[in-house]
Amino acid sequence: MLLDSQIQATIEEADLTTFENLVSFVSATTVDHHRREPSIPSGLIVAGPSIASHGFFFDRLGQKITADTDATFVVLTSGECPNLKMLLRNLIKKATSKLDNADEQEDRGGNSARTGPKPLDYDLVVLQEWYSKAQTDKIIVTIQDSEAFDATLLVETIELFRYEAVLLIGVRLIHLVLG
Question: Does the residue 35 lie in any domain?
Answer without folding.
Answer: no
